[in-house]
Write a structure and sequence with these properties.
Beta Polymerase, domain 2, about 180 residues, 5 strands
Length: about 180
């Protein structure tokens, strides 16, 4: 196995939302295919330590329409990775000249369940600081045990993330419930 860059968790950087906005603005090259761009992942949660990689989740009209736009994403410097382990997703990544990841772009068609899951998780961490602190603890522990193995790092966080996603989706559903007058 080839050596990999170490997994580095950086303190929250107030520049991350601006970077996300800038990368998101570039995605307007997708034209009418693009419905919305959401800043997700740890860099979207104020105060949360994160790998300094911006995660965006653009929502598109249809994946077939997106596939036609692939050259425009590649012209921006993104590498097309296809589904990359998640059905219905198209993943594009951007690395700098040194090979460090700058951005992950997780594209989904409108109505994909992964959209609500990602937004619920993000919003839950934003609203409940205790959950965000626990997530940071989980990330630091995973990084300590797997400093050079991204897959193992991700797998180590997996059970906590899945449990918290379930809570987040229930919380989100409760927020949408209209109480009778």
């Amino acid at each position: 196995m080839a050596p990999t860059n170490p997994i580095v968790l950086a303190a929250y950087d107030p520049a991350w939302p601006r970077l996300a906005e800038s990368y998101g603005a570039q995605l307007r090259v997708l034209g009418d295919c693009l419905i919305a761009v959401h800043h997700i992942g740890s860099t979207s949660v104020v105060g949360l330590a994160a790998k300094p990689t911006i995660d965006l989740m653009p929502v598109v009209t249809r994946l077939a329409a997106l596939e036609v736009q692939r050259p425009k994403l590649e012209a921006l410097g993104y590498q097309w990775r296809g589904e990359f382990g998640i059905a219905g997703r198209r993943l594009c990544v951007m690395d700098n000249e040194a090979g460090l990841r700058l951005a992950n772009v997780h594209l989904f068609a409108a109505g994909a369940p992964d959209i609500d899951r990602a937004l619920a998780f993000r919003d839950y961490l934003r609203i409940f600081p205790g959950a965000a602190q626990e997530y940071e603890r989980q990330k630091r522990e995973a990084c300590r045990h797997h400093p050079h193995d991204m897959r193992a790092y991700t797998d180590a966080k997996g059970p906590w993330i899945r449990e918290t996603e379930t809570k987040a989706l229930a919380w989100r559903a409760q927020q949408r419930t209209v109480l009778p007058a």
